[in-house]
Amino acid sequence: MQNLTELLSEKAAAAFAAAGYDDAYGKVTLSNRPDLCEFQCNGAMPAAKQYHCAPIAIAQAVAAKLAQDGAFSSAEAVMPGFINLKLSPAFLSAQLSAMAADARCGAAGTPVNRTVVLDYGGPNVAKPLHIGHLRAAIIGESIKRLYRFFGNTVIGDIHMGDWGLQMGLIIAELHARQPELPYFDPDFTGEYPAEPPFTISELEEIYPAASAKSKEDAAFAAEAHEATRRLQEHERGCYALWKHIMAVSVADLKKNYAKLNVSFDAWLGESDAQPYIEPMLAQVAEKGLARESDGALVVDVQEESDTKELPPCILKKSDGATLYATTDLATILQRERDFRPDKILYVVDKRQSLHFEQVFRVARKASLVRPETELQHIGFGTMNGKDGKPFKTREGGVMRLETLIADITDFVRGKITENQQVADSDVDATAQMIALAALKYGDLSNQATKDYVFDLDRFAAVEGNTGPYLLYTIVRIKSILAKCGKAAGTAILPPVGAEEKSLGLTLARFGEEMENAYRDSAPHAVCAYLYELAGAVNKFYHETKIVSEPDEERQAGYLALIDLAQRMLETGIDLLGFRAPEKM
């Protein structure tokens, strides 16, 4: 269904036309002076230039036409030419009733189904997830849900780092520790063991030990490079070990991402892009884009319109080694061939913006994607501690993601136990839901590009702009509906009180607010709207005797109103990637 400002703009356009002016001036927006009106139209000012008359005269003529429309309780022209609008209670109730009857609460779907590849993971295998992986996962998951909500086919790709030197380091260290393993016997021709020769805990210890050793032991570093070469040439023993590393790592990654309620459709990595590197390089060469520079293969991406220098994109180093840009371009070619996406969107640290600008330009110049395919990088800032520096453990190290989740869950569990509002059997599940809401909302409520301070006390509070506050509001609505013992209908009555109308006006904006968040790939916009909506619900609750209302029809209208609010809040938090408990 049509969103409210579009509907009001149509009415204003018709009023401009009826008054003898171009209907293109009839755009209605939410009022920036809610103390004066609910909506406004400023079209009389630009119209005055075209028609060479005072803007107030145009505004008065248009307002007179709008005043005859039953959608408005008032349409007033004020100096120098604003048109201030207030909705009639009957029109608002009809709009809300239509939204309540709509499965999507008034949020329209996109008319064209696009295919979007969303790259939002990026972990290196054989290493534990840490807080540096948090923002990509949380922001990417929410954007995926937003895009799907509006009808897109989205392929979420984790894009693992699984083919570089870290693999050679692990294999070399395993050789040093367990040289008797059959993987290191060149004469072994039998089947390799089905079970890996390490656990995830051992694997996570092996890599940093190997990395440290390589910096002090040149012979070991050389062995690691040789193991990497043998792996990338699919030498039998190295490749079998790599498959064990992948199986153990992916199982652990899935377990930890599940704790964040984050999932991927494609579990692909740099290794999957390797077969596409040579075809990609051939396509670049065919276009005449590549040149040699000090032995390296580069592509110039600088354009005449650039205001600052953009360095060439290096595809191969002088020693023949490939780089991230090489793999990313090969991955673009792979995605184009596998999925033919209309858009490829990367949720990656904003410090990689230059890298993606170079990669995107090469991809376009080399026609690795169709001209109409959109390539976008959504860069995000860092999560900082209260000292303003990147968040660390108390010992100064990088915190594991599962440790962060456990700490927040324990903190929330303590508060739940103190309040004694939740049955003992439900404490753990409730704590996990509230902790996830605190963590995700604390991140997503900030614009992605900005750094933010991680503050556990503030994020977990049930008051203020927090995830638990939204959950508390939903739980409160559920409690009211349960107390009244009546199923809420879809008929919403014309509002009587100021808080009732304020809530109705906020609810009426749901579709447009979600559409704007989708258009801008902006989960923080969803958060801002949900916080405003939760505030309107709680003000209405405090000002209105819902449970004790003697007029059954009026009470049913109240219930329908808050039931719609609950649906919108639950839809919104699902887009953010968390859900509400039954009690808090």
Written description of the protein model:
This protein is an alpha/beta fold and 584 residues long. Among the domains are: 4-87, Arginyl tRNA synthetase N-terminal domain (Gyrase A, domain 2), CATH 3.30.1360; 165-259, no CATH class; 401-576, Isoleucyl-tRNA Synthetase, Domain 1, CATH 1.10.730. It is built from 21 helices and 13 strands. The strands form four sheets. The chain has a four-stranded antiparallel beta sheet. A four-stranded parallel beta sheet has the order 6-5-10-11, sandwiched between helices. The protein has a three-stranded antiparallel beta sheet with strand order 7-8-9. The chain starts with a helix and ends in an 8-residue tail after the last helix. 43% of the residues are buried. The mean pLDDT is 94.
Question: Gap between N and C termini, in Å?
Answer: 35 Å
What CATH architecture of the domain at 401-576 do you see?
Orthogonal Bundle
The main pleated sheet reads as: 4 strands, antiparallel
CA-based gyration radius: 29 Å
CATH superfamily of the domain at 401-576: Isoleucyl-tRNA Synthetase, Domain 1
* Coarse structural class: alpha/beta
CATH topology of the domain at 401-576: Isoleucyl-tRNA Synthetase, Domain 1
Please give the number of β-strands: 13
Q: Any idea what the shape is?
A: globular
The number of helical runs is: 21
What is the class of the domain at 401-576 in the CATH system?
A: Mainly Alpha
Features:
four-stranded parallel beta sheet, 21 helices, alpha/beta, Isoleucyl-tRNA Synthetase, Domain 1, Gyrase A, domain 2, four-stranded antiparallel beta sheet
